[in-house]
Design goal:
The chain is an alpha+beta fold. The chain has 4 helices and 7 strands, in the order αββααβββββα. The protein folds into 2 domains: about 55 residues, no CATH class; about 100 residues, Alpha-D-Glucose-1,6-Bisphosphate, Chain A, domain 4 (2-Layer Sandwich), CATH 3.30.530. Strands 3-4-5-6-7 form a 5-stranded antiparallel sheet, with helices on one face. A two-stranded antiparallel sheet has the order 1-2. The termini are far apart.
C-alpha cells in the first residue's frame, strides 16, 4: 500500500509540474493584452508592415483639413517655432529638430566686431505663447588677434531681449492669422 501511495504521489507531482509548464507555455502563446486600453497586442513580425501600421495609426504631421495623402503640415501650427525662425533668420542654422523642440544656431558675429562671436540654442518647452515656453541658451566666444579664444558669460539682458523679440514676433503672427481668419 505504501508503494502505491508513493507512486501516486510521484505521478501527481509529475503531472502538476507538467501542467504548470503547459500553462506557462500556453500563456506565452496567447495574445498580449495592453493593460491600459485592454486591446490585444498582436506582434507583426514584418518590420515594413509594422511601420505602415504605425504610420496609419499615428498621423503625426498630417493636416486633418488636407485630404491629399503624403502631404505634411510641418511646424506651421506652432507660432513660437515660426516666430523664432523669423526673428533670428540672419543667423545661420546648424541643427533644427522640430520633434525634439530645439533649434541650434551657428556662431555669429557682426561685421564691425569679428573678434566676438555668439552662438544660440533655442529649446521649446511648451507650445503656448508665453515667455516660459522657450528657453534660450547663449554662448559667447572672444578671440584676440592671435586667434586665441576664450568663452565669456552672456548677460541675461541679451537673452531676455532675444526672448522678448521672439514673443513679440509670435504675437504679431498670431494677430495677422486672426485677421486672415476673420475675412
Amino acid at each position: 500500500m505504501n508503494k502505491i501511495a508513493n507512486l501516486l504521489k510521484n505521478k501527481s507531482v509529475f503531472f502538476l509540474k507538467l501542467s504548470l509548464i503547459f500553462a506557462i507555455f500556453l500563456s506565452a502563446c496567447s495574445p498580449k493584452i495592453d493593460p491600459v486600453s485592454g486591446k490585444n497586442e498582436d506582434f507583426e513580425p514584418n518590420a515594413f508592415e509594422r511601420a505602415k501600421k504605425y504610420a496609419r495609426d499615428n498621423p503625426v504631421f498630417l493636416d486633418p483639413k488636407n485630404n491629399k495623402k503624403n502631404e505634411f503640415d510641418f511646424a506651421t501650427s506652432n507660432v513660437l517655432w515660426r516666430a523664432t525662425l523669423q526673428s533670428l533668420e540672419f543667423i545661420p542654422l546648424v541643427n533644427v529638430d522640430y520633434s525634439a523642440g530645439i533649434i541650434i544656431y551657428d556662431w555669429y558675429s557682426r561685421e564691425n566686431n569679428s573678434q566676438e562671436q555668439i552662438k544660440l540654442t533655442v529649446q521649446f518647452v511648451g507650445t503656448e505663447l508665453r515667455s516660459d515656453s522657450i528657453k534660450i541658451l547663449a554662448y559667447k566666444k572672444i578671440c584676440d588677434s592671435s586667434n586665441k579664444c576664450s568663452n565669456a558669460n552672456v548677460d541675461q539682458k541679451f537673452i531676455t531681449d532675444i526672448k522678448d523679440n521672439i514673443i513679440n514676433t509670435a504675437r504679431s503672427i498670431k494677430i495677422e492669422e486672426a485677421k486672415k481668419n476673420k475675412k
